Amino acid sequence: GGDHTITYPILQAVAEKHGPVGLVHVDAHTDTGDRALGEKIYHGTPFRRCVEEELLDCGRVVQIGIRGSSYDPDPYEYCRDQGFRVVPAEECWMKSLVPLMGEVRKQMGDKPVYISFDIDGLDPAYAPGTGTPEIAGLTPAQALEIIRGCKGLNIVGCDLVEVAPMYDVSGNTALLGANLLFEMLCVLPGVK
User: Fold this and answer.
1) b/e 68-87 (16+ beta carbons within 10 angstroms → b)
2) What is the per-residue pLDDT across 41-71, written as a single tens digit (0 to 9) for each?
3) What are the backbone dihedrals phi and psi of residue 169, each rounded to the nearest 5 degrees, phi first?
């Protein structure tokens, strides 16, 4: 899809049908800023807008792979104050995320869940085709562990955002994005 702004109206529609939903959010950034360049709707603000409109069941929000520069001394404070679980990238380095996803499945329970995957959650060595790359990210194998770890959840929607093929002449980012979307389709309820 486009930039992460697209998740905001999608979650408005999803919440209209299902009420507030849980969220598995893979990203380098929390996307909970209040404003950017004077605007309240921007690819770095969608989840703050979702909190304000009560579109998220905040006790069932997990953000995985978060890292990078910040303007705040505690860049995750807002998220934690809302009840989000923030899993910084350094907690994921050099290990399987299967145990983490077991915890996430318990946290999500059987209530509706949305998956939002920003390609910059992955290290730019694997996915350089994005507008806001951050070093020291997740691997493609860890991305698969996260998505496959969502199997069995009551997934009501998903997206993959921030792929910018013009920034990757190899085409690897687009290939990776397409494969991750395929994996998301495979874990939807009822898919055998």
Assistant:
1) beeeeeebbebbeeeebbbb
2) 999 999 999 999 999 999 999 999 999 877 7
3) -65, -20
- Please give the full DSSP string across 14-36, using - where no structure is assigned: HHHHHSSEEEEEE-SS----S-B
Domain 4-109+122-187 fold is Arginase; Chain A (3.40.800)
Name the phi and psi angles at 43, rounded to 5.
-65, -10
What's this model's pTM, rounded to 2 decimal places?
0.97
| Cα separation values, 184 from 24, 38, 88, 93, 160, Å | 12, 34, 22, 23, 9
Q: How far is CA 34 from the centre of its chain?
A: 18
Would you say 46 and 5 are in contact if contact means Cβ atoms under 8 Å apart? yes
Instruction: Give the helix ranges, DSSP H, for the chain.
Output: 7-18, 46-52, 77-82, 98-108, 140-148, 172-186
Residues linked to residue 4 through DSSP beta bridges, in sequence order: none
pLDDT at 71: 75
Nearest to 104 by CA among 58, 150, 65: 150
pLDDT digits (tens, 9 = 90+) for 3-33: 999 999 999 999 999 999 999 999 999 999 9
Confidence (pLDDT) at 74: 87
Sequence spans of domains, the chain: 4-109+122-187
How far apart, in whole angstroms, are the C-alpha atoms of residue 63 and residue 85? 6
